[in-house]
Design brief:
heterodimer, A: about 230 residues, alpha/beta, four-stranded antiparallel β-sheet, about 25% strand, globular, B: 2 domains
Chain lengths: ~230, ~500
């Protein structure tokens, strides 16, 4: 369960985020939608304790994220390319993350076999550094790294951007599988309304830092969202 | 059109990452440029009389000419390492309605005015003026000067044709060494022979035409080659190098530090910025050779400390001063990973400590300059491990500048803030002062022992110091994340 209470973030006088209360139950696939500057990435950054909130706090499985670091044990995330180490090959990067997440080389290898289809033969065993991969392939590596070490919470910022259509479909399948047993909470943000409505059972729309819609996904959700954003 | 290009250039220069940085770095760059210019200028003005005094029976101009071969080859080698045609800049222009030929002419013309071409003039022009004042034939001197300028420009364009071709580079090096040896053993005076060619220019200035033709020829070849290659899959493509992985399994012995140490080793081998720092380490190790053979410093024992600290700690300083900025590119990721910060810092400490010991071992040949030197170096090594590693790690908490690993190190001041200037004081001057004082008041042995004991105290307090440093890093976490997200 991820609880947000009285959360706000101000830069000078400008308030970029203000969420009075938001509860994400364990096992939910949660989607965050909003235009540029709506506060999606800010929210994720606060959740990962990369920036400090001005007021309020986020509690991740009973741990206040800016008071203890224990949430790191069970939270995997990928925000952008700055989460990759450019001078490593993908294999070395997975080994590194695996090491930090308590997996040995063999564990990492077994873990990666699940994603062979997702990688589409473009990531593993290639003699290329991460910095030389295309944006889409970088993203693939980052997303998979976020799922290493059996996390209970997976945070993905714009995971669909830059991916090719086949990989988008495969990613949707992976996210659905993750939340199947209702043990892993997945937080996704996206600009693509079709993708989030397909993947997420709950969608929250942010606008200028505040929650304007909180929808249980249903048949009509996509239409509702489209009409909201077409103004 | 040209004015557009020029305004782009202007903005590129003043808005570049390497320019818009702290005022201190700006002053330093300015100082370097002035220093070099002044050196060349002084040699240019004084050169005539110096040569006249050293070799009274020879004509200074002929002497200079006979050394030009070395100057030319040296220039080419220097450019080979440092200078590259900045073709990537033109990428955004390709899709605009500008003729490609114009773009190509522009980048070629622009290269004519580069730093490398200007520096030489600071020598040649004053030297020529002195020649004229000394009563040399005006037309001859002007012809000679024009030849030099044309030659510099030709070298400029020749370098682009060579374009990092290793065979040519090898050839140049061989020529340089060969030229020296055939001259040294009096078989054939190759540099002198080439010098006679330049003498001839002075005798008959119209020969300048030959060099003009050479320059035009090289320019045209450059132009033709470039014009055909302004495509994204040709010249303007970013080359990706194939990965060469080294087996780093030996690091596994270091237990839970291994992943970080492996990373740091890869960081050093695989990035431009760090790779070129390797040269700095070599220079640092050989630093003593500037001092020890020189009789002026023979009696100054406190210099041993400076050399000792510097030569065993050159890697420590080069690498340590940018902790944790080396990891600034992915600092976000590290901060959301599951590990104790102390483990991260410990790995940096281990790398630095190992390097200090390794550099001491490599520096053992300094014993040639006396056992005292080696003894002081040994004490300096312990001081480096015990004190300086901690000082520099602590200094790292003040780092607020991002480092872009893909840029080369020479004249790159990215990531440098006030810390890098101030940290030198405790690092080098403090042990030097302590040693100097005790050596003067008591004895050499006690002074050396004091330095070593200080190091041992640092090692003994290692755990406590690391805990305190770690606390400081954690306290600064958000400020650093924020700073590392900013492009300078």
């Amino acid at each position: 369960m991820i609880q947000t209470t009285q959360l706000s973030k101000k830069y000078g006088k400008a308030e970029v985020l203000n969420i009075a209360s938001l509860e994400i139950p364990t096992g939910q696939s949660f989607g965050l939608v909003g235009n540029n500057g709506a506060g999606k990435t800010t929210y994720f950054n606060i959740l990962l304790d990369l920036i400090r909130p001005t007021t309020g706090a986020i509690t991740n499985h009973d741990i206040v994220v800016n008071q203890s670091e224990d949430w790191k044990n069970f939270t995997g995330s990928f925000i952008d390319e700055s989460f990759l180490i450019g001078y490593l090959t993908p294999n070395e990067y997975f080994d590194f993350i695996g090491d930090l997440r308590g997996m040995n080389k063999a564990d990492v290898k077994i873990f990666l076999t699940q994603f062979e289809e997702f990688f589409n033969d473009e990531i593993l065993g290639k003699k290329k550094y991460l910095r030389d991969l295309s944006k889409g392939n970088q993203k693939k590596a980052g997303i998979v790294a976020a799922m290493m070490g059996n996390p209970q919470v997976v945070v993905l910022d714009e995971p669909f951007a830059n991916l090719d259509p086949t990989t988008q479909i495969r990613l949707k399948k992976i996210i659905k599988q993750l939340t199947e047993n209702r043990e892993i909470t997945v937080l996704v943000s996206s600009h693509d309304l079709t993708h989030v409505t397909e993947v997420c059972e709950r969608i929250v729309v942010l606008d200028k830092g505040t929650v304007v819609k909180d929808i249980e996904t249903s048949e009509e959700t996509l239409e509702e969202l489209e009409s909201y954003f077409s103004v | 059109m040209i004015s557009h290009f020029l305004s782009l250039e202007w903005k590129q220069f003043f808005r570049s990452a390497s320019f818009s940085k702290s005022i201190g770095a700006k002053i330093l760059i300015g100082f370097f440029a002035l220093y070099f210019a002044a050196c060349f200028l002084l040699i240019g003005i004084g050169g005539y009389w110096i040569l006249k005094k050293q070799f009274p029976e020879q004509d200074p101009l002929v002497l200079v000419n006979s050394f030009l071969m070395y100057a030319i080859i040296g220039d080419l080698i220097f450019r080979y390492i440092m200078q590259k045609l900045p073709v990537m800049n033109i990428k955004p222009l390709l899709i605009l309605p500008i003729q490609k030929s114009k773009i190509v002419h522009f980048i070629l013309m622009k290269s004519s005015f580069s730093f490398f071409n200007i520096m030489g003039l600071f020598f040649y022009i004053p030297f020529s003026v002195v020649l004229i004042i000394e009563g040399y034939d005006v037309a001859g001197v002007l012809g000679w000067l024009a030849t030099m300028i044309l030659l510099i420009q030709s070298i400029n364009f020749f370098n682009f044709l060579v374009n990092k071709n290793n065979t040519v580079f090898g050839g140049l090096l061989t020529l340089l060494i060969l030229g020296y040896f055939v001259q040294y053993f009096n078989w054939f005076d190759l540099p002198g022979f080439i010098g006679q060619g330049f003498d001839a220019v002075y005798q008959s200035p119209f020969l300048v035409i030959v060099f003009l033709a050479l320059l035009i020829g090289l320019y045209v070849i450059n132009y033709k080659q470039l014009r055909n290659e302004v495509y994204l899959d040709a010249l303007i493509s970013e080359q990706t190098k194939e990965v060469k992985s080294a087996d780093l399994s030996f690091t596994e012995k270091l237990g839970d530090l291994a992943p970080f140490i492996k990373n740091d080793l890869r960081l050093m081998w695989r990035n431009k910025r760090t790779k070129s720092s390797v040269w700095m380490v070599a220079i640092g190790l050989l630093y003593g050779l500037f001092f020890y053979p020189n009789p002026v410093y023979a009696g100054m024992e406190f210099m041993y400390v400076l050399v000792g600290i510097f030569s065993t700690g050159t890697f420590l300083i080069n690498f340590g001063q940018f902790i944790p900025a080396w990891d600034s590119g992915y600092y976000n990721m590290l901060m959301s990973q599951n590990f104790k910060y102390e483990r991260y810092l410990k790995s940096k400490f281990t790398i630095m400590a190992i390097s200090v010991v390794a550099l001491f071992v490599l520096g053992i040949p300094y014993v040639y300059f006396g056992w005292k030197v080696l003894l002081v170096h040994f004490a300096a090594m312990i001081y480096n491990v015990g004190v300086n590693t901690h000082v520099i790690l602590y200094g790292g908490t003040f780092n607020r500048k991002k480092i872009n690993l893909d840029e080369k190190a020479a004249f790159n001041f990215q990531g440098i803030g006030a810390v890098q200037w101030i940290i030198g004081i405790p690092l080098m001057l403090l042990p030097m002062a302590i040693f100097g004082l005790i050596n003067w008041l008591i004895s050499f042995e006690i002074a050396t022992a004091t330095i070593a004991v200080m190091g041992f105290i640092g090692i003994a307090l290692h755990k406590k110091l690391m805990a305190a440093i770690t606390k400081k890093y954690i306290a600064n976490k958000y400020v650093m994340i924020h700073a590392f997200n900013q492009e300078n």
